[in-house]
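Lab notebook page, bench 4
Experiment: in silico fold of construct C2
Operator: M.H.
Input chain length: 433 residues
Purpose: comparison with the prior construct
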Amino acid sequence: MSDFFKDIPEIRFAGPDSDSEFAYRHYDPDETVLGKRLEDQLRFAVAYWHSFAWEGGDPFGGATFERPWFGNGMAQAKLKADTAFEMFRILGQPYFCFHDADVRPEGESFAENTRALREITDHFQKKMEETGTRLLWGTANLFSHRRYMAGAATNPDPDVYAFAAATVKSCIDATHQLGGENYVLWGGREGYETLLNTDMGRERQQAGRFLCQAVEYARKIGFEGTILIEPKPQEPTKHQYDYDVATVYGFLKDFGLEREVKVNIEQGHAILAGHSFEHEIALARELGIFGSIDMNRNDYQSGWDTDQFPSSVPEVALAYYEILKAGGFTTGGTNFDAKLRRQSLDPEDLILAHAGAMDVCAAGFKAAARMWEDGRLEAAREARYAGWDTPQAKAMLDGDLEAIAARVEAEGIAPAPRSGRQERLENLVNRYL
């Protein structure tokens, strides 16, 4: 067992009037919202990599965190796991997520990596049985090691492709063994720095075949969870092939995978792509590929992915509103792909960052639920498009330009502009917050 979080109490719901720092004010997992327990609506998960593998470095400085499990041995990996599950007990969230490189020591070969992953997977399985914590999704780190500096699936070296494919197989196996509800493929470095040395057509075909092989293998071994792609623009490469939801959908259509693969959408990545979080969720919903989310935020004065814990109830509420329109989560959930600031050194900081984020999400979700139940926003939207519900308008879409032009001329149609009422709708939304 780990004593890293010694003397930190379990975080429990105490209500909005509580003065305790170690309490939930809005997140009551057993509260019923829209017919389901709040825990089942939000499906919180802790990201293993930022919480337990990140050392606090940035492009201008090295590690600032000192953790007793830092190191590259199996003993440290198991201590890290014991500490992680102790944090899960304190927070009471139902899920966690991991990359293979977060949880096992890095070996000298694929065989060593696989043996270590299998050993820690068995350790996880025991801890999960003891605590009831479940796996939301697993994934492979195909971007940190120097072998992946030119990508994994898109690498010009076929041996790197082979190493990456074998690694994904081992990670799907681990996810399947642990009852993971999803498996995520995150591109990382699937992109290019310059077209001067890049065969874009070849790389795109390699990426498509890699994804097909991953899906085929997962189904072959009986993995019934959802396969997810996480869109990300730029960072770290100049151009990523999985830039945003629209780009990913075009890629999936091209390779016949639009019914097999969905998306895991991160708030920070949406902003880097020039979109809002709710835009990406709404588009994924309309395209039928919405799966799960990584909940974090960027510093809007910085031009990169700062992975901060969410702190804005209005932002979170708009995102959950679009998720409610999608029918809520099925296998997906709310993963905190967020990390402490490098000056936040204490064990309490790690606990309270998550607890505060869970409270923000709960408050935002309940605001979204009030908005959804009230129905006025949807009624206003339906009224704006009501003209398209008439038989004449529907027939126009099935007709041709000549018939439309003849009708406009015969009826003397001269449409008058109508207000979009944006500010009034923004005022309406603010009533629920």
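Observations: The chain has two domains: 12-374, 390-430. The CA atoms of residues 8 and 85 lie 14 Å apart.
Next step: discuss at group meeting.
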